[in-house]
Design brief:
The protein has two domains: about 1-125, no CATH class; about 145-204, no CATH class. Helices cover about 45% and strands about 10% of the residues. By secondary structure, it is of the alpha+beta class. It is built from nine helices and seven strands. A hairpin with a 5-residue loop joins strand 5 (about 55) and strand 6. Strands 3-4-7 form a three-stranded antiparallel sheet, with no helix packed on it. Strands 1-2 form a two-stranded antiparallel ribbon. Strands 5-6 form a two-stranded antiparallel sheet.
Length: about 200
């Protein structure tokens, strides 16, 4: 079996992509290239991405692309001496961990600060997952803040945003099944991200 294919059982396989500095560089604005390099150098051997990526356009027009899942970073802690920007990059990258507890811990670190606009993709992407504790955490934070800029970001990325809404709703149907209108995922997308049914029309 090829080294970049990992068996998941029942005939399913994960395409493994070896980690490179280029992957981390593409995951953040280019103006932070030196900071991403510092974070990349702190990563342990054996880190790899799952081969699929999430692309978003930032409000300033720049596009970033980060891995859907990253493996081998579960036990990492912020290295001493990191600058505030490097810490934000570190927490954002670790929020793509395959371990749900790590994702929850890292998004909490992001939400605890006055996070910049370039972290919006990481917050929104974590909002379409099945871990309701993460959705609760994000909603509890965002509902207290002015969300206009993150709503603008979602409109700018309407195609991927609609897919995220559908993904969130499908997880609700599979794992929960109580009132969808009271589900924290729906409240997060509607109240904080400005989701509307009319978004569908913009895709046609």
């Amino acid at each position: 079996m090829r080294e970049n294919i990992i068996p998941l059982g029942r005939g399913k396989f994960l395409m493994k992509e070896n980690f490179s500095i280029e992957i981390l560089r593409r995951s953040f604005p280019q103006s932070f290239s030196q900071d991403t390099l510092a974070v990349a150098r702190s990563l342990p051997e054996g880190v790899y991405a799952d081969g699929s990526f999430c692309a978003y356009k930032l409000l300033d027009g720049e596009t970033i692309e980060f891995p859907y899942r990253v493996y081998g970073i579960e036990k990492m802690e912020v290295p001493s001496g990191f600058s505030p920007t490097q810490k934000m990059i570190f927490h954002a990258f670790l929020s793509r961990s395959a371990n749900g507890y790590v994702r929850e811990k890292q998004i909490q670190k992001i939400l605890d600060i006055d996070y910049p606009e370039w972290l919006f993709p990481y917050i929104v992407k974590l909002s379409d997952e099945y871990v309701v504790e993460i959705l609760d955490l994000i909603y509890s934070c965002l509902k207290k803040r002015d969300c206009q800029k993150i709503k603008d970001f979602c409109k700018l990325n309407v195609s991927s945003f609609v897919r995220s809404y559908d993904r969130m709703a499908s997880y609700w149907g599979e794992y929960y099944g109580d009132s969808f209108y009271q589900y924290v995922g729906r409240k997060l997308f509607v109240e904080c991200y400005g989701y509307q049914r009319t978004f569908w029309k913009s895709l046609k």
